[in-house]
Amino acid sequence: MSHYITMYVLGFIRNDTGILKSIYMAQKLSAEAAKKKAARDLAYAKTPDRRAKKADAQRRRRADPNGAKGKDWDHKNQRWESPAQNRGNDGLGTKTESGKKYKTK
Question: What is the DSSP string of 10-64?
Answer without folding.
Answer: HTEEE-TTS-EEESS--S---HHHHHHHHHHHHHHHTSHHHHHHHHHHHHHHHH-
